[in-house]
């Protein structure tokens, strides 16, 4: 637990492993036992056929909310399912209390279809700044962590994204068209040009991890939900990458961003893609 005199940095130095343990336990208790064993009554639609929720999402988030709140008294949790039930919960991101940003199953569509391309995302933010993140691909037994200013790591090995290899097309994962406005569709279509090879995105958290590992050059996304982006954006930053909105500013988890935005394995690539997106708006 944290007392009134402990800073966030001191809490992270002492409890980062405890957060990882909480994430692993939630996945072991609520997610993995349902993987490839979901029944029809355990799956629901939210806004449409591409926006699914399962009992694993709901129960894992409830468990994480309890366990993370106990680790850091005075903190609040902004979870995807809690915000779906009560959108006012999202306002905590703009407050002074430390905020846990939780996506219990990122890539629910993949999870429902028995694909192992899903993960659990947890980030800790304070006054609008993401200070730490945990990304757990439970079905692949991969765990990535990042602490601001201290680097990004996958299973204990430090991540360095590095610049893309010269002379080849940039591979960019992009938003599903169901989640874009007409203006955003125009911007994203601009990526279909010489030197860029767009493809549809899967789990946002795993796409960010691929950028941080230097396996994917960039992402270009058109929605702001903090639980999809907070953990991965810090991973990319701490691996040497960068993220930019169409105004040339970094993405803000508190909202108000000019979309689409991009996150890339180096600053030059982020600037190039933001310019391509911005020219089409």
Automatic annotation (TrEMBL):
**Which positions make up the signal peptide?**
none
Presence of the UniProt keyword Metal-binding in the record = yes
Q: Which Pfam families match?
A: Inositol_P
InterPro entries tied to this protein: Inositol_monoP_metal-BS, Inositol_monophosphatase-like, Inositol_monophosphatase_CS
> Gene3D superfamilies recorded for this chain?
3.40.190.80, Fructose-1,6-Bisphosphatase, subunit A, domain 1
**Its Enzyme Commission number?**
3.1.3.25
Report if keyword Metal-binding is assigned.
Answer: yes
UniProt xrefs under PROSITE patterns: IMP_1, IMP_2
Keyword set, alphabetical order: Hydrolase, Magnesium, Metal-binding
Q: Which reaction does it catalyse?
A: a myo-inositol phosphate + H2O = myo-inositol + phosphate
Q: What is this protein called?
A: inositol-phosphate phosphatase
Question: From which source organism is this entry?
Answer: Streptomyces pyxinicus
